[in-house]
Specification:
- The chain is mostly helical and 50 residues long.
- The chain has one domain.
- 88% of the residues lie in helices and 0% in strands.
- The chain contains two helices and no strands.
- Helix 1 packs antiparallel against helix 2.
- The two termini are 21 Å apart.
- InterPro entries: DUF4134.
- Pfam families: DUF4134 (PF13572).
- Keywords: Membrane, Transmembrane, Transmembrane helix.
Length: 50
Amino acid sequence: MGAVVGLIGGIKVYNKFSSGDPDTSKTAASWFGACIFLIVAATILRSFFL
């Protein structure tokens, strides 16, 4: 599920970058932050239950 959401986010960032949208850096930063959150959350949850 996280991979699908990450792929969709990456496509959104690419579309904004290609169209020359000035808001691209904010979108890319939020997408990157969401990816980091998913990795950290999965690691923490795994450590609680293993």
